[in-house]
Amino acid sequence: MGTYISLLRFTDQGIRSVKDTTKRAEAVAEGAKKFGARVTQLYWTMGSYDLVSVVEAPDDESATAFCLALGAQGNVHTQTLRAFSKDEMNAILAKMA
User: Pfam families recorded for this chain (predicted)?
Assistant: First the structure.
């Protein structure tokens, strides 16, 4: 499973219904299963981004489909980063030799 970190910003629609944000988060976590993904952490933040999520997904395609489905709901814009653990990074570095 790959790890993906998403930085999320509320859209106008999302901020208008911000009182439902925790309920929407629960629904998103449940919906992630449809893509073989799992939301492992979710934080509401202050600053340039409104939320930060950590998601595990079987591959980039599944993670992308999940992010697109999330964005299509209209409540958030996402910027997603593929993250690598220390062991994964060591395996990547070993390919450089």
Answer: GYD
